[in-house]
């Protein structure tokens, strides 16, 4: 159990219509610490009945919430932002306890998540309509932007303190209400954020949280006729399923799905910057990010030197419990994640890959794994085609710019990509040729609440963050007004 200054932030019940409730039959599920595998607590396990009640509450709250001025909604979102920062240390301890990431990373995630409430509090006041020049002097033409209605959010376990605000802030700013189904591995972060939302003054029913079975809660959300929008972050496989289930009621969807991010490192790259960027991208959150470097392509001229430099840097990363002050790499989320990492390494080695750093379970045991570098990568390896979601950096070789672009784009995914070069012309050529929604040039970290985030191809639909993010929760209405001249 994390030690908190404010014990009121550790919630274990469902939030429905402004009240905290147990699940039907007092059903619960366990939440474990991935570093120690110890039980943290039991959380109420919602099902279809509770999801339906939360949807009904959100629907009932919609008229009054959407009727409030944008300035009023913005003030509540801003108070929510401030409360998150005031309680950042407790939130970080909750996040590290259930997710495993080092406290320093947890603090950074919480600040990043809070920034979405600040950003969209301002964007709420910038939802503009328009007037259209009329073809008829007897008419006036107008366009309005209105909230889409009740929204459902289904969020992942890897960044709960960031992904929830990235969805909830624009929805609520636009005047929508929401039901959230958080990941079962990290429900405590979601419930703590919800508690702060209550303290910020969210009216009953505007924001509801139902941890529980995806097969019941998630299905209720995507099939209910009252829910007009679903926003989801997770795997492409699950995204396909949700899309199919939502088709019955023609819901609007935002899907942030799987990735297979390439990194292209050209001969003219700044070596130190490239190594720093790869570590920032690949090993953040133990490689458990949808935008992390999954395929590292290095040009012939610097290949050997890059492998050696990266391997040395990765071998020095400190692995340990996230609560220790010197920890840089925490545990993986569960045993299945460890097994997948091992499977990818074994497959790569069997096909000629050479482990140059790490490569095995960490002596700490449990869900800990050594940060790993594999040289000699080839396209027939699993690690080239599948998202590893773990701390393994496979390095592939390429000859020229054309080959690098072709290799990078040879995937059904299109979420994030990175490349390192000091050639100005190449920055434009490669940046425009890469088929990805987010591209980092000479950096491994592109996160900013004011920038649009989302993928191409099978990596999803829609954008989060920036002014584009609030448009995902708005409908465009055209008014044609006749009889003006009498």
UniProtKB/TrEMBL annotation:
GO terms for biological process: gamma-aminobutyric acid catabolic process. Keywords: Oxidation, Oxidoreductase. InterPro entries: Ald_DH/histidinol_DH (IPR016161), Ald_DH_C (IPR016163), Ald_DH_CS_CYS (IPR016160), Ald_DH_CS_GLU (IPR029510), Ald_DH_N (IPR016162), Aldehyde_DH_dom (IPR015590), Aldehyde_DH_Superfamily (IPR050740), Succ_semiAld_DH (IPR010102). GO terms for cellular component: cytosol. One of its GO terms (molecular function) is succinate-semialdehyde dehydrogenase (NAD+) activity. PROSITE patterns: ALDEHYDE_DEHYDR_CYS, ALDEHYDE_DEHYDR_GLU. Residues 20-478 form the Aldehyde dehydrogenase domain. The active site is at residue 256. It comes from the Bacteria. Pfam families: Aldedh. PANTHER family: SUCCINATE-SEMIALDEHYDE DEHYDROGENASE, MITOCHONDRIAL. Belongs to the aldehyde dehydrogenase family. NCBIfam families: SSADH. This is Succinate semialdehyde dehydrogenase.
